[in-house]
Design brief:
By secondary structure, the protein is α/β, with parallel strands linked by helices. The protein is 42% helix and 13% strand.
Amino acid sequence: MNLPGQGPDQQSNPSVVAAAGRSLDPHVQRYAARTAGMTASEIRALFAVASRPEVVSLAGGMPYLAALPMDALATDVAELIATEGQQALQYGSAQGIPRLREQICEVMALEGISAHPDDVVVTVGSQSALDMVTRIFCDPGDVVLAEAPSYVGALGTFTAYQAEVVHVEVDDDGLIPSALSAALDAVRASGRRVKFLYTIPNFHNPGGVTLSVERRPEILRICAEHNVLIIEDNPYGLLGFDGQTYPALRASEPDNVVYLGSFSKTFAPGLRVGWALAPHAVREKLVLAAESATLCPPTITQAVVSAYLTKHDWKGQIKVYQQAYRERRDAMLSALEQHLPAGCTWTKPDGGFYVWLTVPEGIDTKAMLPRAVTQRVAYVPGTAFYGDGFGTRQMRLSFCYPTPERIREGVRRLATVLEGELELLRTFGTVTTRQVSGPHSPSPDTA
């Protein structure tokens, strides 16, 4: 006989019968409440297509690893295993190997930071550091302030820990101090608690803007007055195209800033080596969080990074990266100027990996993405970088990985797609699209 609501065709389908009797996920009642915020992005399937060689991907923030001395690195790794293998392949400290922590302090000194190795915690990429910081500071319902837009990986972490993101406006000079003050006052008036400000001050992901030197003391002062911690995420700080290195917020305020760094952009992301520099008491909590999450960061990858910093001209390698990315940035900006239709605007980054593009009113970049991939070009829609559904007119374009020629071709294809969207608007008018619910879990395509 038929089950209730079941037709003859459904009756003969065993999978439908099984689904009618039980959930497709038998564990659904067991999950913690916080997993409700852990949702996969519907654009992930599109990026599987976008990874094909015929598609110009302006989406993922992958470094240009061809600039690395691969043969020399291969020799270094072989020598490391041969001479220090029993130590490098063994368990290590949850805080990270001492020699690398000393070298990290030397790296941070380029940004004016004076730090002791004891206050550095090596992590499995800076994403792990961000996860641990959020875990030790945020209770469900706490508020995190973040720039509008903000890094998708950070937004996904905040959502996973059930924190509420309140965005703060930025302009071409970065985070706006008056907007920060207004956000803090509004949250306090609502009776909620701000745990920290999350900011990417240099060559912002995804915005491409940099917090001006003049605004930095003001941001520090406002947060100190409101007793709000600052999480300074700075993976791009050494990748300025004119050779300028901006002073870190942590350099001026060591007691109220947790600084997150990474070797993913200046060396190799596959090694997954990042770090947190924190005030002493916070450092202790981070070590305990690291022990419970990963026991210890992989010793072998730390040893590889340490050997690279010891044996190679890593500052010279950063200059090679700067030149390569500047050439790619210039190719993108000139192509945008040449090909994009009227009504488009974009940021002009002086470092980093990204351009933030705003398209004419009426175009929804998330809805447009499948048509762009069909035309063999990919980007990340702006809604991925907001926790509140905004960003439908924006997209992030990455120039770090493709060659200049591929970048120019990708922008040309993108312009064709935009022209097609504008033609549809002229013919049928604006179509109201659904609001998105917020950030999704990050992936390598949206990093």
